[in-house]
Predict the 3D structure of the following.
Amino acid sequence: MNIMEIIQVFGHNLFYYVIIFLAVLSILVFVHEWGHYIVARMCGVRVDSFSIGFGKELWGRYDRHGCRWKISAVPLGGYVKLFGDVDPASAEHTDEVDDPENGIRRPMTEEERSQAFFAKPVWKRAAIVFAGPAINYIFAFFVYAALFMYYGQTVSPPVAAAVGVGTAAEKYGFMPHDRILSIDGKDMESFNDVRREMLLALDVERHFVIERNGTQMDINAKPERVETEDRFGFKSSYGRLGIYDPSHAVEIKKILKIDGVPAENEDDKIKQLQDRMGTTYKIEVDLGPKTEELIVHPLKELNAGMTNPDDEIYYGTLYLSNSEPHELIKLSPLEALSKAGRECYVTTRNIMEALGQMVMGVRSATELGGIIRIGAIAGEVAQQGWVLLIGLMALLSINLGFINLLPIPLLDGGHLLFYLLEAILGRPVPEQVQEYAFRFGLVFLIGIMAFANLNDILQMLPDK
């Protein structure tokens, strides 16, 4: 993509992308900070301010508890400032307060000290800090549950409709209509589960349990590493097995060859396809800029309408799967809650595995995206419908909660680490040690953010 194409893509929808991104981010930040706020109130800590955004205040009001709720000029985060803390990061505290009547700073009274964050027992401080990431997970859990219950879940069975010629799937013996039961011991309930596992399958052999003609089989296969680039220029890697999900069907007019032989005309092509129903063979398909050869095994009963002009769904199409491509299932409350819990668990596990791959050098750190990439994704998803946008919000909420639990100073996880050490040692970690740690954390986080956003910009620029 050249620079003019990038400008056209972003420039045409820039306002839309920015508004969607800021709306999603503000909701997630509010949820996170509200977790800190509500647990602080429950623990008897006074909250001085609750801000969406940083910098100069644009709008604000006090509630009956004396907390200043405000919207600030830089809408890229937010904070809750607790009574007794010098700054919103709780990196330092003070036992002095301003006395506006006398124009001096004075020591806290006993009553004021009882409302200060730093004076609370370590378990209360840990609960307040942990509440932010926890509420992100709780929010995602209930968003998923509500979507599954009221909208439903689109399920595509974990079945191979076709196998790509020359792919890892052909190399290791996968066949059309194989049902994937598990990968490395993880149950596959849908093709989306298979797809998510392949996103992380880089240079590692995976153990597949499949069902073929009613018989279970074991296959050890190493997916092929593939690098893709989206229309914004953002690159990512994933493992490609080479099987196609049940939603794949082929327009007959785009079939170029059958078993390596070009068809003489359309009638001849259709006759060859009908004669081969129920058998395994190869077709070469025109996919626009390239062609691809597939191993297929179409069934006669599912292709009865391929020559019937009155059949609006199947006419002119070779249907590859032996099952329905997908169905929308509305789950019961208990099923929705169970499924929502599984989504939170699987997402967290995948985040951990992807980060581990970056640390070990298996996955490139250039796949780490910043606010530009997140904004582009949010804008793209929003154009596909509100349901997908809400699902993305739940996914980002889990990411926000997980990242904040990392034991990095300044993040919630860093504070929790210090509180754990305090509980073990029976005394707080020396303030000087904490100060140096917070300085390191600040430099580290700024570096990571700068790297991620610079990486977004560089990937959008045209290659020389």
Summary: Residues 172 and 343 are 29 Å apart (CA to CA).
